[in-house]
Amino acid sequence: MADVTFSPSSAALARPKRPNPVLHFIRKQPLGFIGFLIILIYFGLAFGAYWISPFHPEEIDFAAMLAAPSREHPMGTDQYGRDVFSRLVYGARTAMAVGILSAFLGCTAGALIGATSGYFGGRIDNIIQRVVDIMLAFPIIVLAMVVVAVLGKNLLFGVDMNLIIAIALPMVPKMARIARSSTLSIAQMPYIDAARAAGYGHTRIILRHITPNIVAPYLVMVTAFIAQAILLEASLSFLGLGVTEPTPAWGLMLSGASADFYKAAPWMIMFPGLAITLAVFAFNLFGDSLRDWLDPKMKG
User: Fold this and answer.
1) What architecture (CATH level 2) is domain 97-246+274-300?
2) Which residue has the higher pLDDT, 299 or 155?
């Protein structure tokens, strides 16, 4: 019996090799990759705070009050002799925890509300959008302040869950609008009509057929909202409505330093301010690059 050999078809030979997505992102969005590296550094500080910081963030040393940056205290000390670098490192843990949890909660709730609103339309859509309009009428900081004042504090594993809810709530209407606009176009697709004809319920269609198709804008908004959440947490802590002493937080460090010691010890303001600025810049840079990379219109 003659041997039979199979050779790949010309179509298979001509098929281009799919590029590695990570390398493709680095090549197409170098600035976004720089932002991602900065984010990784912040995560490294947050998870390795116990080993990185030379002092305990709450350790008081009255003999070293308002000490200038030195080899022992690289970023100086505050009015209680606490090491600014140690508090800054532990503050990264607070900022990352509050920022990520708030952005995830706000975007997830907003995506589900927006998908539901766009899918059903009619009276349900009208009611949901009027509530969204009311929420959007309030400035973000004002709405967060009201929620914090009403809910108070609720610590869970050292994290104020009410603070996370207060920061996440203003993000819900923005994400709901974006998810609704995407759902309005997706709901007209033939496979949605096929799912309805197959007898699938509304919940299954929303969760299994519509929600996965808005993952790209969801991921972009999560990264953008993390930056907003970090800034909002710092603002609330600065005003005394967020994290309270002695927990290390960047906004709280600015609050305790700005009034009385900005001339005698400028490092107490400079380093926390730089940490907040760099974190917000990195997440915004990565979010914008991720949006451009995931948008098919921007890939040409």
Assistant:
1) Orthogonal Bundle (1.10)
2) 155
